[in-house]
Structure formats: structure tokens, C-alpha cells
Amino acid sequence: MRILVFFIALLAFAPVTAAPVQARDMIPPGAPNSFADLAERLSPAVVNVSSTPKKEDRRDLPEFDIPQFPPGSPFEDFFEEFLDRHGGDDHDALPPASLGSGFVIDAENGYIVTNNHVVRDSAEVRVTFQDDSTMDAEVIGTDEKTDIAVLKIETKKKLTAVEFGDSGKMRVGDWIFAIGNPFGLGGTVTAGIVSAQQRDINAGPYDDFIQTDASINRGNSGGPMFNLNGDVIGINTAIFSPSGGSVGIGFAIPSNLAQPIIRQLIEYGRTRRGWLGVKIQTVTDEIAESLELDKARGALVASVTEGGPAEEAKLKVGDVILEFDGKPVNEMRELPRIVAETPIDKKVTLRYWRDGKERKAKVRVGELEKAEEEGLIESDERDLPTPPSSNGVEIEDLGLSLSKLTDRMRESYNVPDDIEGVMITDTARGSEAQEKGLDEGDVIVEINQQPVDAPKEVQEIVEKAMKDERSSVLLLINREGDVRFVALKLETGDE
User: What integer pLDDT is reported at residue 29 of this predicted model?
Assistant: First the structure.
């Protein structure tokens, strides 16, 4: 009897055999069962893009030498045949140098979108469709700043086009899938989620990338990223990869950023971006406090271009732009994109912060490309000669040694005659001034938005700030004509 009871007890604790797990049961909640229907419908719109470099650009291509193989090796015949077919050392006969993907956005007119880097400096561009049909394409326009190019083909072939969606509605965690046509192998489909938004990878002035974990490999550049409705919400452009292959960190240009550029390239053959005529920098917590701004937000005006729209609107160095044409500027990097997307010659309202108050101004938007052609936007870097030695007057509260500007200093540091201020002659080792990059030869033009031209004036402003229990002071620094604001903390004795 005891044996029977023990056997029954064992059965009670015996593992229960589970039913076989179906693949469908492993799908995360909210995920599509399959991308097959969408891929089948959209793949015909995705093309392979190949480009041949211009003749003068082939001089830098590497020489081809036949590796040494044993006599009679089949590899020896292979390499000899390869070089004979491509003209030996004649780079004019080299195969296409750049491969990428693209997608049709206008079936009637034959417009195709891809990346600028895929077709840059190309003599010939060809596109290959899913059915292996290949045809020549004309480059209608390119934009290096956003890495977008528009092609056009002339064909009687019935094309399949895709439509753009609203990338602004995508959220981190949303499902996406990408289609490419790398290396002419035919359409390839990968899927993933939106990993992050508004990524700045230092690719250009308008960085606002969608990051995804969907596999995006070399050759997929220029291909579309879709939402689950089959709308294009991004153009696959870049990957982060130590090895050259996909490691689950890919980047796409948002459709909302790309569409205005594409329309301009089709209409004008080039971009026509809005232009305000200011150099700006980030508003840090310290800068916000020194300007009596409620929090770090907006874009701080570091310089105003002479003859530009901002100068006509009476904007000044030290103003913080908080809103442009009804759109809030929460971060500095948002302003260039907002201005660029504003129609040329449109008169807009600009809200900004000055002297502890919010103000308004009307500004007529200029054209960036026209300003560049007219030389209003400069990027001039000059080599500095060996500077003269000078100890200067030490301002301990700032960790700086300062001196009045002399003619010799102007000549040594290339300081223009119209720049007035106080020269930094030394920074204290380990000081905040040194950590923030201030250096010998920099000119302090203003401190707390008050012009200075002698070390004594700087000391007086610092002492007043400390008396008023201000935790920092704001310096306007000029370095070779390039200006920026730097906030330095003060020792108030409370710590």
C-alpha cells in the first residue's frame, strides 16, 4: 500500500509534456505575422543603383597586380582574363565604382530617390529593377547636406511607385521594415523596430536620423524604410559598423525632412533653403542662468551676418531664439532645420530672449544657397604665427590672465581692427576656463553682455556678479573671427 501511494505521489510531481510551440506563438504582441504581402507589393519599386565615376576621378583608384600563383593554377588564368577584360591598368574600363539602392516615387515621370553618395561625381548612372531590367538614369539634382539625390529614367515600362508617410508619427519601438537591392542581387527585405529618433551622427548640419536595429548593409544605401502601412518613412543612409557589416545600428533620413528637399530638386534641380544669417550655439544650464532664462532652451546667437535677414530684423549677439514661425526651438540644432524648411522670402515672426525679457521681431527669410554664392557665409581658417609672450593681469575668479589688445597682438593673432576686447594671455592649469577650451590669443569681447576693453573692466564686472550672488558669468569670445559664448562658474563663497 505504501508503495502505491509513493508511486501516485511521483506522478503528481511528474512534468507535464507541453504541446509543441508554434512559430506563431513566439511572435511578440503587436508584431505582424508576416511582412510577405507588403514586401511582394512594394519590392518592384526598389531598384539597384550603379554609377561609373568620371574619368578624372579614376586616377586615385588602386592599381591591379596579378597575385603569384603556382604554374598552371586556375586562379592565374582567372586574374589574367579579368585584367584583359578591363583593359589592364586602363582605369577607363573599370566596372561601376558605386552601388546602392533607390526607389521609384513617381511612376508616370520616372523619378527615383537615392543617396547623394551613391551617385556623386558619376559619369553614368544605371538602375536595375527586380526583374533584372536595366536602364540609364539622369541625375536631376543632388543635395550633399542631407545626402539625397533624385534620378529620372525614360521608359515605357510600367513602373511601381511608393508613397511617403509621416515620419513624425513614428514612435520608438514601432515596427519597420527595409527593402534594398544591393549589388544587383535582387530585392532583400529586413525588419526591426525604431530604436531611437532625432539622432545626430555629425553627418551634416540637418542631422535628424531615425535609428533602427533592422539589418542595413552596404549596398542598401538609398533604399526605403517602410511603416506597416507600406508608406516610406525613411531613406536608409548610414550604419554604425566596426567591421563593415550590420551590427543592428542603422540610420535613415526621416521622410518629413526628405520630402521638401526632393520637391526642390525636382522643381529647381537644386535646393533652395531658408536662411536667417546667424551663427548659433547651444544654451547650457550655466548660460541660461547667466541670461536669467528659466531653463536651457532655444538657440544662442553667437554672431550676426552683415547684410543678412537677422541683421535687418535687429537681432543682436547674445539673443536667444525661442521660436521661429510659430515653431518652438527647444534645442539649438532644431533651428537650422526649421529655418531651412521655411519658404524663401516668407515674412515670419521670431520670438527671442534679450535682457531678461521675451521679445518679438519680424524677419524675411533669405536663401542659403544665394548667400553662399555671394560669399556672405564664410569658413576661413588661417594659420597663426608664433604669438608674443605676455603674462597679463591675472583674474583669479575666472582662471584667466588678460591684457589690453595691442597692435602687436592683433598682428600675431590675426585680430581684425574692428574687433575690440581684452586678450587672454594665459589660462590657469586645471581651471574651468582651460577645460572649456579658452586659450591664449582668444579675445573677450563682452562679459555679461557688457563690452570690455581692459582687464580692469572685466574684474569689476566679475566682482559685481559675485556681489549679486550670481553663480556664473557669460563671456563672448572671438577667435579668428569665429565667436561663441562661454559660461564660467564663480566661487561665491557659499560652497
Answer: 63
